[in-house]
Amino acid sequence: MSKVEVNDTVKSLLEEVNASFPGEVRIGFGEEQAGFVRHDQAQQFVEEGKMLIKVNDITAPNYTASHELIHMLMILKGFPQLYFQLSTGEKDTDNQLMFLITELYDVIAHEVVVKEQRRHYLIDDEVEEAFFKGIEDAVEAEDAGKVDGFSTIRLIMMMDAITFYGNGLANFETRLVDAFPTTYQAAKKIMQELDQRTISNPFDFRRKVVKAFELIDTQLKEWDLPEIHAMEFATLGSVFSERQLRLSVKQLFQIFHSDLHEKAQDTRGFVGLGISDQQNAFVVPTPKDMPSDEYFRELYAKNVKDFFEEMKMPYTIR
Predict the structure, then answer these.
(1) Calpha distance 56→54 (Å, rounded)
(2) Which pLDDT tens digit goes with each residue over 238-248?
(3) Are strands 235-236 and 82-83 parallel, antiparallel or unpaired?
(4) In the β-sheet with 42-47, what is the strand arrangement from edge to edge?
(5) Per-residue pLDDT tens digits for 298-314
(6) Distance of alpha carbon 105 from alpha carbon 211, whole angstroms
(7) DSSP H or E run through 282
(8) Dist CA 155 CA 93 (whole Å)
């Protein structure tokens, strides 16, 4: 690993993470220097209570390291995480869905991450240019604005670019429109709707992620492209009030028999959808030891807090 001296802001973020993380977090640096930045240029390795954040590319080491640390802080502060407990039965399809849904989830997370990075002056003109080069490296420009098999990832990347550039978007908009005319305009429309809500806590964040899941499928359907069905396929951590934790499962969730299989026991999965937002909040396997009717009658009657703790399903209290 190369020796890179991070700035005081990154050191402070690392200290903040270590103050909450149940173990030790360190940062290491590789030697690659591609000349662009992308969010896949860092990885996390966990071993015996220790975590190494490996920044493989040192084009903008303070930017990339701080990006990873702020993502970690969000998790430590109870921002809901994604879980993939279901399978289509096709590994390639599963991997593609997990990739796209995670990228879309990160668009919303980046609203928090980038805001914090800009507050600490970790994004400058060079990083902004390197970010644009990262887009160019990741995906080809549109062919005369045609919709094709890469339009979904282009759309998500355009949403991310709008979030990243923020108030400085005008400096890059012409180049984005030239390369990605169709997906950029669609992304702008989606982001205008999403930006009606700000994020100040984990509940706001979760609500905005669910809205993004909904809006992207609406756009993909309009383009006659396969929807990603993130509201069913991905489990999103819940945020409850103290009052909601005392309610019965039946008061907050509807459970339906999915065509997808749950991974733990490889049975057809039963998915718990939030009544208020229709988002997958938990998955249970097909019951084995008692008739389904009896099992779900008992499950619906359980206290939400007891059920989630029994399932070892993380949740946040607002």
Answers:
(1) 6
(2) 999 999 999 99
(3) antiparallel
(4) 24-32, 50-57, 42-47
(5) 999 999 999 999 999 99
(6) 10
(7) strand 280-284
(8) 19
